[in-house]
Amino acid sequence: MWTTANIPDLTGKTAIVTGGNTGVGYETVKALYKAGATVIVAARDYGKAQAAIDAIQAAGPGRGQMSVGLLNLANLTSIGTFADAVKTDYNSLDILVNNAGVMIPPASTTDDGYELQFGVNFLGHFALTGHLLPLLQQAAHARVVTVSSGAAIRVDGIDFDNLRLEKPYDAWREYAVSKLADILFTRELDRKASGILSVAAHPGVTRTDLQRHIPAEELAGLFARFDTVMEPWQGALPQLYTATAPGIAGGAFYGPDGDQEFSGYPALSHYNTPAMQDEQLAARLWDYATEVTGIHFSF
Ligand SMILES: NC(=O)c1ccc[n+]([C@@H]2O[C@H](COP(=O)([O-])OP(=O)(O)OC[C@H]3O[C@@H](n4cnc5c(N)ncnc54)[C@H](OP(=O)(O)O)[C@@H]3O)[C@@H](O)[C@H]2O)c1
Description:
Blueprint: E1 14-18, H1 23-34, E2 38-43, H2 46-59, E3 65-70, H3 76-89, E4 95-98, H4 116-138, E5 142-147, H5 171-192, E6 196-201, H6 216-224, H7 232-235, H8 237-244, E7 253-256, E8 266-268, H9 279-293
Helix pairs in contact: 3-4, 4-5, 5-9
The structure holds NADP nicotinamide-adenine-dinucleotide phosphate.
């Protein structure tokens, strides 16, 4: 059973956790900091991120450092500005955790016009990773962990004619599309980037702010269907495991080891669908994202 007690010494390592102010992102920041890493808490609200840092420090000493980075993944300009600031302050990046996410919001778009879940959960992280690639390439064994979801198995492809809310909105379907896109991105990045480990993780079923768009009564009914709803410290373990443990397989997907991967401790995921393995779809998605973000990864 792998826990945060197994995290190796991260002194001298630099990490970014998107959405690090709450939920499993917060627990990821906390564990990396305790293990000695210098952690940038990338968040869209400065006050929330600083409050998270204060809470982590108040909970006990860590061996690393933490700072706030302002990042709105729903705005491509903000992503570039954040990355430029990181490049000014740091020469290399060891760990990038693409964790931030939004689930089933009312129909809405990013500032650049993409369906919000696709735009934040996938496209924003694609752009961010591309911007930061030169720093990742400077690290000895950099890792990019992209947080996906078991929901990725619920769709069998990506409708490229419906990424800007062109068709009637199906909130759960678009969430699943964004999380399938995260898996395809992970695999394609791992294929393309030598010297960088790209891996996906999911936190099973964990009680966080992610469920903010589900009405309270409905949420209670939903959670009642699961034997265990994990707390964020446990939900964060798969992404901490993939970010720090030895022997992680590039391009692979990890999650909790319990029944149907709803809860448990980190292990290779059994979630697998033809769409998740579709290399042509992954290549098409990469080309699409390159074109619409203008971010060309220079390998
Ligand atoms: N919880 C689960 O059961 C579960 C299951 C499967 C997958 N996941 C995935 O796990 C990841 C973390 O989710 P969580 O459960 O910890 O949810 P959470 O508590 O809601 O945290 C999500 C984080 O993403 C941030 N975020 C949202 N939109 C953003 C934007 N435009 N720019 C920058 N940051 C933004 C949020 O910021 P604010 O605080 O400012 O809103 C928050 O920090 C997500 O990718 C989610 O899809 C979670």
